């Protein structure tokens, strides 16, 4: 098929099928998170133009690529206040730092070009990165540079003073001194202007002074570098303009697809830059800047600044709203201007006795207090997933921080230009957050009560699963009667599965499930988030009663199976015995086919009819049917036992769902409810009203009483007439008819 090639239409159709697969058109559209506008088309056009330009003659290609590269570099240096800088355009955002490391190695080791890695034996190079840097950055650099992991030093962040996401400068100074004294060569320091997690900026001014002191190279990266294009820039970020190099990711900041990242650097020796791979003599390599060159011209300076400013306004809008919310804790570096907003749900146990906590600390700490960090991580993970699902245009995600734990992050500089986040999306995010906070607080408050109720209830087992965002996990214990482990496990699974099905059939606002797909406990019922009006005792009692009912039904079915099997065996024995008795009564001759027929014709044999037996499912035994043949009437048998039901016949208000506590707003409401309930009972009372009381009755009451008296007298008269009509002669006649029949 492919030997002769395909036409353009078939190839494009193949590409479309590969992009969208076999999904429906509506489903495939949901995965298009980025709306590619005109600025996106300009960036995509740059890749096509680069292919056309590459076929030009060599001289014309050199002039064109030099113009594109110089213009783009000049615009970026002016836009981000980086004077006298050069630019390297790369697809992978880590590739720029990798080439900078090679440039520094060539600069600090003069014989590196000739001797290679042999010169590194005398003085081992050391690269310093923050502990808050991107995961795997240090290992990736060592692998690409061919250096051992001992050449990478992770600098801890502040623990006492300052932001806990900033590099500890004093500790870094001591580490560098120790490395110098041990014969190592401090090579490069990677700082953050916006950490990947919380978006905090290192103290770049002090780090620059430290690098100048030890003749080190300072490289800065981070999302906060985008604010350098604004009119107002914080002093901490403005210090990045004095660094030796920085990496800019313009694609995510401006919403431009398939544009390269840019590393701006300052270096005076072009030969070393060429040796490190920062510059290239190939004109085609310089065409990497063409998509960015087209996009920057389309947006212009004002368009670029407006996009970055819009993202900063979104984060500021969210931060202002979060200040007015209870139980929300923010972690931002600068409350006046923070491009990244990190927040989490946090509820203080203010209603608990602090003195009891102090007493418990010396003995046994409370489970909720000891596992508080883990529970909050679980709840904030659920909160972030819910917000991302309810407001997808906000671009929020969940991030794991070393000190704060699991948090929700809003970084519009990385997402707003791509997915088109607006002010109304932020307002909707705040509204959804206000709706989820009461659910989180009520669930957190009722977890302990639920645990205590389950532990007090016979037949239920509380399963502690700190990774479950909900009220808790419960399991109904199956009382085994000497069964093996496999059969007991199957029976336990059957009962808890049926219990989950029964609970989901109830008309309640709760969610019951089998738990997470991976990592959850087996044969358990997981209860999700709850509201503050939940009646925990009723919930636990219902679970226990339903489980007992399922277990009793299961035992009844097992016993019935055994009884039926024994009944069948007994019936077979009785049939065999009846056949033997019939053979003795009729004789041997009557069993011969021809002789028996002749003998029965001359002398018919009249055997006494005997009834068989029936199996009574209610009593679980065989019963004779002789009484049925004699009386010619089917016996009623034993009355079946009542079906086991829950004792939770709780009276509810109209429209009130199960597991909901009644409103206790005022005493008047309770009195009104009780009075109305008594009135209803009086309406359905089957007894007739008294004909005479100690109080005087009105004419209407007297008339009703007389009518009821007359009806009762008439009913009594009719009954006596019917009984008198049945004479003994009629009864004898009926008995004779039954005998003839």
UniProtKB/TrEMBL annotation:
Could you tell me which PANTHER family the record lists for this protein? PTHR42735, PYRIDOXAL-DEPENDENT DECARBOXYLASE DOMAIN-CONTAINING PROTEIN 1-RELATED
Q: Where is the composition biased (Polar residues)?
A: 665-676
Example of a GO MF term: carboxy-lyase activity
- Species name: Sagittarius serpentarius
Enumerate the InterPro entries for this protein: GrpII_AminoAcid_Decarb (IPR050477), PDXDC1-like_2nd (IPR055103), PDXDC1-like_3rd (IPR055102), PyrdxlP-dep_de-COase (IPR002129), PyrdxlP-dep_Trfase (IPR015424), PyrdxlP-dep_Trfase_major (IPR015421)
Residues forming the PDXDC1-like third domain are 450-555
Residue ranges the record marks as coiled coil: 561-588
| Disordered, as annotated region | 626-741
Q: By what name is this protein known? A: Pyridoxal-dependent decarboxylase domain-containing protein 1
